[in-house]
């Protein structure tokens, strides 16, 4: 075991280094530690205030949000038990339970952690 990370493209564990560049012999992907750190940072979901969100957190809506139909979520509406989505749906990267509305997708920049 070399202690090098698996390839972010194909997941191969056969990576090797050439100077400061890591290379995957399986798919020929090349990346640096800075690239890998930036990719890990991009996976972190943050609220409107910059706080890191995680599964199970409770959130509050920071502004009125129009929904399909005549409904809307008012500012201050609380969402419970959020779940971070691995594959965002139209920019909506969290799913939570809104009392009276059920489960729905929200954008993390429209909520704050409670």
Automatic annotation (TrEMBL):
Residue stretches making up the Protein YjdM N-terminal domain: 4-32
Domain Protein YjdM C-terminal: 45-113
Alphabetical list of InterPro entries matching this protein: YjdM, YjdM_C, YjdM_N
Pfam families: YjdM, Zn_Ribbon_YjdM
Family matches, as SUPFAM superfamilies: Prokaryotic SH3-related domain, Zinc beta-ribbon
Family indicated by similarity: Belongs to the YjdM family.
Descriptive protein name: Alkylphosphonate utilization protein
Organism annotation: Jeotgalibaca porci
